[in-house]
Amino acid sequence: MSLTAVCSVASHSPAHRAGVQVGETLTHVNGKDIVDVLDYKFYTYDPRLELTLQAVDGSVRTVRVRKGEGEDLGLEFETYLMDRARSCANNCIFCFVDQLPPGMRKTLYFKDDDARLSFLMGNYITLTNLSEREVQRIIDLRVSPINVSVHTTDRDLRAQMLGHKTAGRGIDIMERLAAANITMNCQIVSCPGINDGEALDKTMADLAAMYPAVHSVSVVPVGVTKFREGLHPIRPYTKEQAAAVVEQVERFAAAHKAAHGTGLVWCSDEFYLIAGRELPGEDYYEEFTQLDNGVGMLRLLRSEFARALDLLDEEEMANTKPFSIATGVSAAPFLREIVDMAREKCDKINGQVYAVENDFFGHTIVVSGLITGGDLIARLKDKPLGERLLISASMLRSGERVFLDDVTLDDVQRELGVSVIPVAQDGYELCDAIFGLHNGQPPVSCSVPEDEYYRYNPGTR
User: Fold this and answer.
1) C-beta separation of 393 from 460 below 8 A
2) For each of the chain's 461 residues, which pLDDT tens digit applies?
3) Exposure winner among 141, 178, 371, 458, fewest CB in 10 A?
4) What domains are there in the chain, each with its CATH number?
């Protein structure tokens, strides 16, 4: 069956009213070829449509549809993309997937590098596997924003870092997209002694030359696990090295803001934590465009938590019970400050923050989003945890109760003998969880999709 074949038709939908049948393949909309989900979403936006459908026996028919502008047709296909996901063609020297231990879920080893997922799901792509047709389609369909993993604008260095001889072409594509006013959010995975220093200065300057098409840039530290045997030698950032990157980026951002009204480039929270530097104030992060890359995430969490505290009344604070929080090593001091804020508001607060060292991936991994169920059990087994243990929802597979090591939330609760509550990266939700105001129901998990964790963009969740 074609991946553009209809798998289901929603009742009472425009497609249902038009008589579209399960099993038919959608080949054209208003005479335009439908190759994948981008074509489908773009060409079905209008209120009057002519759908060309091919039956299993090869016969072709045309139906007309009237609907609201932007209204969904009500069709579902075999895959969300109406196509196979595009795999990565690179061999990046810093790739997190290459640093995974054996024996994990097969989906965790798949490296996607798909422009459609960049637009639809916010994934970051390198542009190395885009055909000329796909580049032109982005321009013609005004697909925007595109999220680009840049890493460096030095074309030769980019080819070396991405392990792809034509990776420098990605910068040419970016310049072409900028000329067509396609918005791009960019990411730089910074590796000590490789693409920081002078190389980073060049990258920031080159990206700034594409402003305003380049809307934002995040600089995040490389993630280094204990499974790097045979890979390019890369070490984690030291405190001094991280501080140098923070100063370099802040200096550039200040100059760009003075000239254009936006800092454009920001370091992730983790760079500040590694450097032992105070996080900038909320205003520094402007629109928090790079929040999903861990840029300003902790600052926003603290600000939201403070506002949530101000909204609490005496009754809501009256029955708080002992609790604990498990988090990554890097964010633990910050969350202790959060608990202290709650204690200043209510002296009945009895909470403990535990920094969980990562044995699964190695102690160089200090973010919360990569903590496994097994490490939670091993590290907290004999600790006083109170009546509930709060964890970041980013530790769990999206929409499920499973950690990266396939240990379940139920397993952790059974082994630790305490209710484990996943909390989204939201200050209001965290406040409710600390004060037990979720009415016995765990807060809604807000985890990233499982195939995204390996990009090492969880910030300091």
Assistant:
1) no
2) 466 789 999 999 999 999 999 999 999 999 999 888 888 888 899 999 999 999 999 999 999 999 999 999 999 988 777 777 666 778 889 888 777 887 777 666 566 666 566 566 667 888 988 889 889 988 988 888 999 999 999 999 999 999 999 999 999 999 999 999 999 999 999 999 999 999 999 999 999 999 999 999 999 999 999 988 888 999 999 999 999 999 999 999 999 999 999 999 999 999 999 999 999 999 999 999 999 889 999 999 999 999 999 999 888 888 889 999 999 999 999 999 999 999 999 999 999 999 999 999 999 999 998 999 999 999 999 999 999 999 999 999 877 899 989 999 999 999 999 999 999 989 999 999 999 886 444 444 333 333 333 333 333 32
3) 141
4) 6-77 (2.30.42.10), 97-295 (3.80.30), 300-455 (3.40.50)
- Give me the amino acid identity at 414: R
Are the CB atoms for 240 and 246 separated by under 8 Å?
no
Identify which of 2, 3, 36, 43 has the alpha carbon closest to the alpha carbon of residue 133: 36
Which pair of structure tokens corresponds to residue 307? Answer: 């506002």
What is the DSSP secondary structure assignment for residue 36, as one 8-state letter? S
Unique residue bearing structure tokens 């190759």: 35
